[in-house]
Each structure stands twice: as C-alpha cells, then as structure tokens.
Amino acid sequence: MSRKPDRTILIFMILAFAPMLVLSVIYYRVRVYKLLLIMMLLPALASVLTRIITKEGFKEMMILPRFKGNLKWYLAAYFATPFIAYFGAAVFFMIFPKSFSPLQSAFASEASVTSASELVHKLLLLIPIAIVVNPLMGIVQCFGEELGWRGYLLPKLARSYSPLPAAILTGAIWGLWHAPIIAIGYNYGSEHPVWGIIAMVIYSTVLGIIAGFLTYKTKSVWPAVLFHASLNGMDLWRPSFLFMSEKPNMFLGPDALGVIGGTGFVFIDLILIAIMRKWKSHSN
Predict the structure, then answer these.
(1) 122 phi and psi angles, rounded to 5 deg
(2) Which of 101, 171, 181, 270 is the most buried (most CB within 10 A)?
(3) Which three-class secondary structure state does DSSP give residue 67?
(4) Looking at residue 194, what DSSP letter applies?
(5) Cβ-contact 155, 60 below 8 angstroms
(6) What is the pLDDT of residues 175-202, one digit of tens each?
(7) What is the predicted pLDDT for the residue at 114?
(8) In terms of C-beta density within 10 A (0-12 exposed, 13-18 middle, 19 or more buried), how is residue 281 classed?
(9) What is the pLDDT of residue 281?
C-alpha cells in the first residue's frame, strides 16, 4: 500500500451514488426504461465532474483505444464473453438436466419452432448475428459505466493498493452502486431484495476482476467497454430464454447472473488472479 485513498475518490463516489439513488426512486414510481439508460451514464458524468471540482484535469482518462499490441484483448472481450457465459449455462443444465427444454422455451414459442432440427437451424442463424450485432446497441451506455469505474476509480485505487485488490474493490463498489435498482426488483426480482444486492455485488466483483485486467493490460477502458457490452448484449438471447420453459432462478442460473450460470467467469477469474497477484503496480 503506497498511501491512503485521497478525497477525490469520496467526491466521485458521492457524485456517482447520489443520482443513482434519486433516479432509482423515480424509476420505481414511473418504470420508464430510458431512466435505466441514463443511470448507466452516471459514473462517466461523476468522473468528469470530479475532475472539474478537484481541478485534476483530464489526463490519464484511458479513453484512447491503444489498439497497437492489444487487438487480441479487444477480440477476446467482444467474442469470447458469450462462450464463457454459455459454459456456465452448460454446467447448470448438467446439474439440472430437467430444466433443459429448448422445444418448450420462450424462444421456440416466439419463433414457432416445432422440431429439434428447426430449432438448431434458427439458433445457428441467430447466435452468430447476435454475438456481432447486439453489443453495439449498448456501447454508449457501457462506456458511461466503464469510464467511471475502470477509467477513474480503478486507477485511483491502484495507486493506493496493488492491482488485484484495486480491481476487486472497484468491482464490489460497482455492484453496490446497483443496490437501489436491485432492491426494487431489477435483475433478481423483488422477493429477496437484500440477497439480490449481495448477489449483484458478488457478480460485479467477479466481472470487475476481468474488466480490471483488460484495463490494466491495454491502459484503455475500451476493452472493458466491449466486455461489458458483449455480456449485456446477451439479454436478448440469454440461456433461460433459449433453453428453458419455466421461469429461471436468477440466483442460480442458467443465466450469468446466477452462481452456477457465472461459473465460466469464476474460472477465468482464478486464472487472472494468479497472474495479477504477481503484479507490483498498476503499470504492469
């Protein structure tokens, strides 16, 4: 540890968390989807306002893409993410095989699929297109989050702690930032709001290690943005939608939000933790 976190972190946290709480209350009353999109821009706005208030300027925002030597991380963030997520779904269905009922799924119903061959054909057409196109629809919103969490908070914490704890702490704070919207039922439902918040903090911490690693390796927020957008893009073709007839247990899976559904990301974390433990500073 080099020094205690400075006051800029506190200012950033206030500017990120307070509007999130206000907008969540408004969303609870009006349920307007556009408010969710605005919420995702709050961390970026908080980082910009903090830089203005503290007069620290706009250097080291990690906003440049830095493609040279980093193209593999961009490709991995964009294209490998769905396969990691579906690894967790496969684990879930191996544990709960009776939950695997693709011909009775919501997707099969909407697509008027009546046979296994027809289902496979439609999935082979849908999934490659979804992998390429869906993340593009959320790039702006994901940039709004990542510019704040990985572009501002992560490097701030990395100056006070070693890279791995900084990535873990950033992910946990990111998850806690979601608490107001999770408490009113987003992602995990409204029946168990406290457990939903805990699950979201764990989930965000798991993802935060990966996003932090990508940011450290490339010195840019963009691979983390692509990773985030690729995962969010799966909302339109999540495993429960494609392969289940009953309502999924969001705490378990098969979707990535669940403990079992997120298994693939946990495995990736174990690899990255072993690598990042050897790093001595955020410049590695």
Answers:
(1) -65, -40
(2) 171
(3) coil
(4) H
(5) yes
(6) 999 999 999 999 999 899 999 999 999 9
(7) 85
(8) exposed
(9) 59
Which pLDDT value is given to residue 283? 45
55-90 pLDDT, tens digit per residue, is: 998 988 899 999 999 999 999 999 999 999 999 999
Q: Are 211 and 217 in contact (CB under 8 A)?
A: no
The first and second tokens of residue 212, run together, are 């932090």
Domain ranges for the chain, please list them: 7-276
The alpha-helical segments, DSSP class H, found in 219-262 are 222-232, 239-243
* Distance, CA of 20 to CA of 25 (rounded, Å): 9
Task: Look at 87-101, 113-127, 146-160, 216-230 and tell me which has the smallest mean pLDDT.
Answer: 113-127
Residue 10: partners with Cβ closer than 8 Å, 6 or more residues away: none
Contact 237, 130 (CB under 8 A): yes
CA distance 254 to 279: 34
Residue where the block lists tokens 């940039």: 143
C-alpha dist (Å) from residue 245 to 75, 96, 162, 228: 33, 13, 45, 27
